[in-house]
Design a protein that fits this description.
Helix content is 29%, strand content 25%. The chain is an alpha+beta fold. It has one domain. Strands 1-2-3 form a 3-stranded antiparallel β-sheet. The chain starts with a helix and ends in a 5-residue tail after the last helix.
Length: 87
Amino acid sequence: MHSCILDNLDEYQRLGIPEYWIVDYLAIASRAYLGNPKFPTIFVYQLVDGEYQVQKFTSNDRIISTTFPELALTVKELIAASQIQKL
């Protein structure tokens, strides 16, 4: 991932931000993070004992969030909702 994202993670971890999301809706991150083939991906970082633990969600995965436990949304649904619809 881009170094400024990693800098943000370090800063947010230091500040105690309980949850941080990275939404790569264009699948532009490297294959080291997204795999091959690359798909739109959501990374959810959750603060556990002072350190971030990351979960990666793609496609039909239901996004799991301790901050929003009632959330019932998949990556595909979130990406589709963010796209501009043609009339």
